[in-house]
Amino acid sequence: MPLLLFTLLQLADKNVTQEYGVLSFPLNSLPLQKEIAVEEDQSFELYLTSRKCSGDLDVRLGYSLCREEQDFLQKRKKHVAAALKKILNLEEDLKEHEASHMVPNDNFSPAIKAWFTH
């Protein structure tokens, strides 16, 4: 369930803040087109407004990849495996978990060649 997280800060001195606490709201429980007042020790108020969104979100609300990114990585693994097989002159195809999805740099090629040729 997507959550909206806020870190509450308390002003201690000039330009110095201390963490006061964390608020979390399940996004699907927020009422549409209404203001929500959140008070803590009568020292501040937080107002939120949520609006119904008909399209896909442009913001990632978690650490998981979207479907399009997962599809891209699956396709890329096949291309990477084929390229590694060709570059390293391997006799057998690489298994899916052996195909790297890292971006190679100058140190990558000798290391991967040593790994697969031994």
From TrEMBL:
Entries under InterPro entries matching the protein: Acyl_Trfase/lysoPLipase
Highest taxon of source: Eukaryota
A single BP term in Gene Ontology: glycerophospholipid catabolic process
Gene Ontology CC terms, in alphabetical order: cytosol
GO MF, one example: calcium-dependent phospholipase A2 activity
UniProt-listed PANTHER family: CYTOSOLIC PHOSPHOLIPASE A2, CYTOSOLIC PHOSPHOLIPASE A2 EPSILON
Name assigned to this protein: Uncharacterized protein
